[in-house]
Amino acid sequence: MQIDTQRFLRLTEKTSSIVFLDIEANGLRGDYNSMLCASIKQYGLPPITYAVKKVGLDKEALVATRDALERAECWVTYYGKGFDIKMINTRLLRHGLAPIKKRPHIDLYYQLKSKTIMSRRSQGHYLSWLKLEQQKMSVSADDWSRAAADWNKGIKTKMVERCESDVEGLECLYVRTSHLITDISC
Hints:
Blueprint: H1 5-14, E1 18-25, E2 35-42, E3 47-51, H2 59-70, E4 74-77, H3 80-94, E5 105-107, H4 108-115, H5 123-129, H6 141-149, H7 151-177
Parallel strand pairs: 1-4, 4-5
Antiparallel strand pairs: 1-2, 2-3
Helix pairs in contact: 5-7, 6-7
């Protein structure tokens, strides 16, 4: 038996078993970089963030992120199929750990790309253009550089705030556009 996509979404929303994920990393490649933090937000609840204690030592935060994702029935990301999930799995591989078990995964980047025509496809652009309550938090190039060099001196708080802001914005974007979601893949 197959369940209708919209019905599946309403069921996962009611049970808070749909989660929004965003990670921050100190680069774009899992072999040279590591995860800094991951925020997971259950539908309608505050985000929970797993942050590293020291850049490069991401094993504990990765395991907590993986385990939290595996407790959910469905994930929502923004370009998570292209980055977040791959980065987490690459770093888990580095530590000799099992990858995340797949779940139905809604990547709003691909959903919106296939159903809208926009000059820019970033999450921040959609949030701004739709005039949603939550907007994308910017982080300067200097702060990104400091995140690798000075993780224990205030920058950790800023990066966690950014990560949590991203999942809150992602939930707002999902709520506004979920009627466009017609299929979900793993």
